[in-house]
Specification:
Layout: E1 3-10, E2 13-20, H1 21-34, H2 38-51, H3 58-72
Antiparallel strand pairs: 1-2
Protein name: Ribbon-helix-helix domain-containing protein
């Protein structure tokens, strides 16, 4: 599996995130379902990660979030 890199703005800063296409698919669908931009969704994941003192990097946090979403069936 190869990584797909995307650029987005989080908290007013440009950043890039590299994830496998399957994880992007889950995140894209979640953003559509929740009627928010992909950047807004990833921003929420990032805020939750930082707020919880989670030491995962953002890419790992997005993978875990996407996995939990799939596992929960939402």
């Amino acid at each position: 599996m190869s990584l797909v890199k995307r650029s987005l703005s989080l908290a007013g800063h440009r950043t890039s995130l590299a994830l496998e296409a399957e994880f992007w698919d889950v995140l894209d669908q979640a953003a559509l379902d929740e009627r928010v931009s992909l950047a807004a969704l990833i921003g929420r994941i990032d805020e939750a990660r930082v707020g919880a003192g989670d030491e995962l990097n953002l890419a790992s946090a997005c993978r875990v979030w996407a996995l939990k979403r799939v596992q929960s069936g939402t």
